[in-house]
């Protein structure tokens, strides 16, 4: 029997029996039976056997499965020592879904697809050896972190580490276009190239002139951003890694761009086929001024990027609209159109109800909290990566007259439940930072020079977290309670502290900082003011008990770190970002990202297989009441939790809002006496609440409809860690 010839297996049926209550109880034992059957009927008979570890590695070398130079940095005796340690840890998958996802998506298979060539321990070992880059101590540390599932590398990194024939280790990319045909052409080429090598691509189109703007030397007018969006969508559809995955991209536009209505309309179900976008994601960048105009129920002006760039001498995205708004309104040289701010707000909410889009990036909030010299102008496909960029200038030969900087995302996640049991929280985080540093140091995206330059100058990483709701339920805490918010605050404070410590240590070792460190708020020490002027300690006894035995820095500790950073610098321009998580959270037997679960027993539709059921981690009679669905949770509680984390996260977080078409009674007080149907007003209120709480971005709006369907669940597999 091979993987192509599986007959008479029982694990799918056993797993499906979880959804059939027995005496009004969820039969969780059926999942354990399904797991045992899967390992017995699928994994064991179809895993290639070897006489020894050496024989296995020799086979992988001979058949070109192994990136030999990476492994040759170690004596084989050390590799045997590493395996001895990993085997002694007695790792076992806890659920059928975890094992199924690993073997279906991550385990190395023979070229004909008939046999598995590795188990979870093998993949852990390969990640540890690969990311440690010959450092035996670090390899042991990483093996310890990954096998105990305290650290989870992003999907591209975890999947590709150590493979001879592999894709990139990077999760996704961010690029921007400026207002000329050369740049547009280069942007489309970059989208093709980046989609080919893997990962989602975010593209900023705010600098492009709007429809009707003049074109130099031609007696005509520009067509605006929508035709460029169509070209990009076709590019992603074409460049799909030989059909292995759908190319994925998102385009961002400022809410003050004159094409904003057409931009949003292109995603509507009833849009004309000539302009309708089926697969391209949409995001809007929203300055503070938009919220001010909404509050005042005022008119708002949309400004021609062409006119703005001519007046200010920089691309549209680099002008502070909130600061310059009144001057731009008065300036007769800038073409403008007038609409009602609340009309645009409602258009955004209508589209979010219909499709889940657009993502919303509160761009002034992101820049206000940004400690780096420069400007954030956009985000990525999952709205959590926020880094400064500089525009490029392209000549008529499609060469870089001036090479700017763009962004690649090197991501990984802590597993909150497991990291909280680490024997040394700080040491664990340092190992994770060093693994991520390997990815940024060894990324080679020369097909897009602006991304190559940005990565080499900034050394950015994005360490995040998953399993927050699992941690709350396991410890019998209500999601969004004051204790839950307090825990989130301290947990992310610790991640911030220890990633700073690790980055500072690497800068000291290498005598190197990220470019322009001296212009940052880290260099002048002002970044640390909020930590050195108040004590950040748990506010509640329950929270304090959860952190018992875990070091929490005092003002004096922060002061010492501030002095070290000012003296020796930081290696990484950016360190933290919270991605939405996808299949990788199942392998970790935990809940995704920071948001609440959707169902106590989640139903997943798997390609060619059918439905697979996944019980919430640690689900029991003791925890079941703490597992309320996101669709039945006040989204202000979710926003409060994310806001507690955001104050310590230098980049962004993928915050999804979960709504029902019919809203449960009593959930939102403003619904009292009004319709129980979800309206644009509900989304308007929640977006404004998130803005006031300091949230940098809102990812999808997911709506559970009255016919048990879901709107807004088209997630990018490469970006969800």
From TrEMBL:
Single Gene Ontology MF annotation: ATP binding
GO CC annotation, single: ribonucleoside-diphosphate reductase complex
Protein name listed in UniProt: Ribonucleoside-diphosphate reductase
Top EC class of this enzyme: oxidoreductase
Annotated catalysed reactions: a 2'-deoxyribonucleoside 5'-diphosphate + [thioredoxin]-disulfide + H2O = a ribonucleoside 5'-diphosphate + [thioredoxin]-dithiol
Any Gene Ontology biological process: deoxyribonucleotide biosynthetic process
Species the sequence originates in: Lactiplantibacillus argentoratensis
Lineage of producing organism: Bacteria, Bacillati, Bacillota, Bacilli, Lactobacillales
Biological function: Provides the precursors necessary for DNA synthesis. Catalyzes the biosynthesis of deoxyribonucleotides from the corresponding ribonucleotides.
Family the UniProt entry places it in: Belongs to the ribonucleoside diphosphate reductase large chain family.
Its EC number(s): 1.17.4.1
Key words, A-Z: Allosteric enzyme, ATP-binding, Deoxyribonucleotide synthesis, Disulfide bond, Nucleotide-binding, Oxidoreductase
Boundaries of every Ribonucleotide reductase large subunit domain copy: 558-580
Keyword match Oxidoreductase: yes
Domain of life: Bacteria
